[in-house]
Write a structure and sequence with these properties.
By secondary structure, this protein is α/β, with parallel strands linked by helices. The chain folds into two domains: about 160 residues, Quinone Oxidoreductase, Chain A, domain 1; about 150 residues, Rossmann fold (3-Layer(aba) Sandwich). Strand 11, helix 6 and strand 12 form a beta-alpha-beta unit. The longest helix is centred in the last third of the chain and has 14 residues.
Length: about 350
Amino acid sequence: MLNRQIVLASRPHGVPVPENFRLVEAQVRELEEGEILIQNEVFAIDPAVRGMLDDRDDSYLPATPIGGIIPTMVLGRVIQSRNPGFKEGDYGRGFVGWEEYSILNPGNFAIENVHVDPGVPLTAYMGALGWSGITAYVGLKRIGEMQAGDTVVMSAAAGAVGSVGCQVAKLSGCRSVGIVGSKDKAELVTGTFGIDAAIDYRAEPDLDAAIKAACPDGANVYFDNVGGLILDTMLPNMAAFGRIVTCGMMANYNNHDEPYPIRNLWQVLVNRVTMRGFLAYEHLDMLEEAEAQLGEWIRSGALIAQENVTTGIENAPSAFINLMSGVTTGKTVVRLNEGVTTL
């Protein structure tokens, strides 16, 4: 069986370009005991992957070698199984790469038999009902210790994690404030998602003043997806005993060697702030709760799952380049064929 894959042709410098990727074919090997073979239907396209394309050893996942498959979360239908937890026809999800067929083994940290609701589009299981939504839920509830009445600020509030997180905060009885990078994104999060306030950081001549106006008593929880200037500006705007949830550093992904200098770290002491990074897959005890609550909100229409969908494995690089260029909203996914249902 031939398997089309997208591999790393050369290391990007700054925002990736098409020449950094190559489409190849490889044979699918025989399964070993405990493994399953899935025919992929949807890929998640995630900004964190950008850090794995550099030749660095300071990330939480290893660097992708030249010629190596581009890593990502995949969702597909099981076509062969040597694992008693999966049967043919089930849906398997795991962290593998941009390819048409994937072998998942028990050692894959994200392997899961996904119970797909036929009333929910399949792409949602890579976005709001996938690890983006789970990350937002776990980060706010466990790491941020979010409580009703809190003021919650979400950076990249129109992005994959942020678009879910700002709505989860609002649905949990909090004042929800989103930081975004354009007027259209600001209108999306306030008009479509219904959160309380949005700040377009690119349009604000004084970002600190804009945050103070939106959060006059400070932020109890700041969910950080970007780092850089926005993190530095949020530090003096935290309420006493506030919590900063460190999820991503989008501002540095395209320029790891020249990160933005954080000048306001002193404010962690001034405001007695707790700042903690986390990886959602280390909190699997919350998986069932997160999936159940997110699914209920999506089915009821209380939570809008925003998606940016591209079709065809050959178009995965362009979807990733658009994401890393900052021109997308919601969760960026690639469906392998037009028959895959979308939101």
